[in-house]
Amino acid sequence: MQNRSITFAIIIIVSPVLFALAYYPDSFSLSWNQGRGGFLFAMAFVAAELIGIKTIVSQKRVLMTIPFAVAVFAYLISLDFGLREYIQEGAKSYNVNLIHSWTWMWDFVVMATFVIAAVTILFGKRWIRIAPAGPIFLCGSAIILSLDAFFPYDTLGPLQYIVPYFVKANVGIINFFDLGTAIARNNLMFLKGEHGSMALQVFWPSAGVHSVIIYSLVMMAFLLKMNIAPRRKAMYFAIGIAGTIGVNMIRIFSLSLFVLKVSTNPVEFEEFHGIAGEIMFLPWLFAFLFAVTAIETRRIKKLSA
């Protein structure tokens, strides 16, 4: 009964995403600010944390989550019947600069609210220790989209501050390996390669600063539920930050390499730019969390043997 209840709960939580995937298949882009691709990773977090748990959940609690799922279904359907236009019109009232980020933000706000409501109904206040990663990933994505909507490009100074250092490091790598001609100037890169020249202006989202924020939120929630020494938690957190920064450096380098070796066509570059970040960061995040779990599980088994 317990396993069936948890399985049913997972199906209910995932069902709005499956519906969106069927109803709006083209909206599931891997780009963080151009679609619902993040929903899939959030649901993977939810499933990974709930499968196999020993917490008893009554069928009554599971059934109580259904109306919230239905509400998300209604929201998704309503987008095609004027709600999307209403949301876009609302952007003008709040002086939003990037309407697309504003629009996608509300999708993540709705989904985050639903998932938090569902796990709260299922587990009460204990949800923060049982299944925090999915909800916090969704909340983090909504926060990042809101920042991008209200403070696009380089208008948010604190997040943009680190970008010139990333740019200089990237240019240094290009010149060291003689991959082409690269010049750095603040957040600008002037690149010249096999297919011509191109200037790239790097803003904090393109530099992956948003991934550091999302990693920090998810990792803090993940470590909160782990029964390990604070020193080990701090160690894992620091290693993850370093790894995420490394992934971001690879992200910028891959964009530069595309210009130097593949194409300087703006359309082709934007297509690659749209997926380059998330296709690197999210697998890294999953792999790192899995590695931490595996290491600590093995360590606990050795200590208890």
From TrEMBL:
**Biological process, per Gene Ontology:** proteolysis
Record protein name field:
Membrane protein
Q: Which UniProt keywords apply?
A: Cell membrane, Hydrolase, Membrane, Protease, Transmembrane, Transmembrane helix
Topology in membrane: Multi-pass membrane protein
User: NCBIfam families attached here?
Assistant: exo_archaeo, thauma_sortase
GO CC terms, sorted: plasma membrane
Q: Which InterPro entries match?
A: Exo/Archaeosortase_dom (IPR026392), Thauma_sortase (IPR027561)
Q: Which residues form the signal peptide?
A: none
Q: Which GO terms describe its molecular function?
A: peptidase activity
List all membrane-crossing ranges.
7-25, 37-57, 62-83, 103-123, 130-151, 202-224, 236-260, 272-295
User: What is the annotated localization of this protein?
Assistant: Cell membrane
Lineage start: Archaea, Nitrososphaerota, Candidatus Nitrosotenuis
Q: Which domain of life is it from?
A: Archaea
